[in-house]
């Protein structure tokens, strides 16, 4: 997956049939600003939230994003490795 902005990634997901409601999009923007996360890390947190929860769970997403940022995770591969090692999500 090439690096997309958060807005492009949301449009990509909607094109795949994931209908994110306005409150979910608000949570996504809030989490990104609150944690000062990059687009790559934000998009990865969205992806992992959807895989873990089968739907968008705003509090799960914000917690995951906070955890990734606080552990200096910068890239999608690092984030996936981290959640697997910590057994946070079975992916």
TrEMBL record:
InterPro entries: DUF6123. It comes from the Bacteria. This is Group-specific protein. It comes from Cytobacillus praedii.
């Amino acid at each position: 997956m090439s690096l997309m902005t958060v807005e492009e990634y949301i449009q990509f997901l909607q094109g795949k049939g994931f209908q994110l409601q306005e409150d979910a999009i608000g949570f996504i923007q809030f989490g990104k600003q609150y944690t000062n996360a990059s687009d790559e890390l934000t998009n990865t947190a969205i992806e992992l939230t959807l895989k873990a929860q089968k739907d968008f769970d705003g509090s799960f997403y914000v917690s995951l994003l906070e955890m990734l940022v606080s552990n200096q995770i910068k890239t999608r591969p690092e984030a996936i490795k981290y959640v697997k090692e910590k057994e946070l999500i079975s992916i």
